[in-house]
# Entry
Amino acid sequence: MMRRLLVFIAAILLGITATCYSAPPGLWAQWILDWHHVSGNTLTPIQGLPGSTGGTAGWVDGSGGRWYRMDGSSNHFVMYSGAPGGLGLPSTAISVEAWGMVQESRDWSSFTNFIHDNGSYERGWILGTRNGAFMFGIASVRDGKSEPYLTYMTAERPYEHGKWYHVAGVYDGKRMKLYVDGRLAAGCDYQYGAIAYPDEGTLAIGAYIDSDEQCNLVGAVREVRIYGRALTAAEVQESLPGSGGLLGSGNTEGIPARLMMVDGFSIEGILVGTDGAILLIETGLGR
# Structure
């Protein structure tokens, strides 16, 4: 049976250290789209900027819990709109991970992106869908002698409606890779050099957005991560459900937490919320 403990941060002064979450190396931003982190029209990040929506929150059961449903119209989240310099986006390498589900096929619907693709002006990156399959796109400066352009890589196999997937796009400055459920689904070396960003853009979850276009996702998103480096194939696989990584882990509510005392005694559980200086943790017996 699970029980709830109220743990004061001040307890650290009494010889207890709280290691509720240790960010993986290079993690730039992380959002978990459950009811602990979505309140009203606000998405509270694990790391990074908060998101806001002008739509109505909806929920879908599945994949170990209840997750935020993207209705295909207006309930996507926007974290930032403006010049990329105000964000400090990854510049020379990037990895974008999402755990999501698609209920209706729409070209250019997106798990997350910061992109601009209008005519010959192509900049930024996107992790989303195209032609009934998952897609990763990015533009780079290449040799700097010609205008940047976007390369969109699409997985060979189509996704199934209503099925949950882990999707990851990786760019190391020389090569693009797209992974679906830990397996390499596409790769190419058309892009190289620093990422070419638009003069202004929108960092969003659940919709492709640029200055004159918007395409919303119909489905659900459980979690999104962005790294400022290229994940290895092994690291992508470690993020899969049941692998021990936090992304898509079996924990249905909140963030894994461990309270360590100086005598070696520890309490493990799930951080499900905060109230000022109080951490609310669901846990079994200490050990």
Observations:
- The radius of gyration is 19 Å.
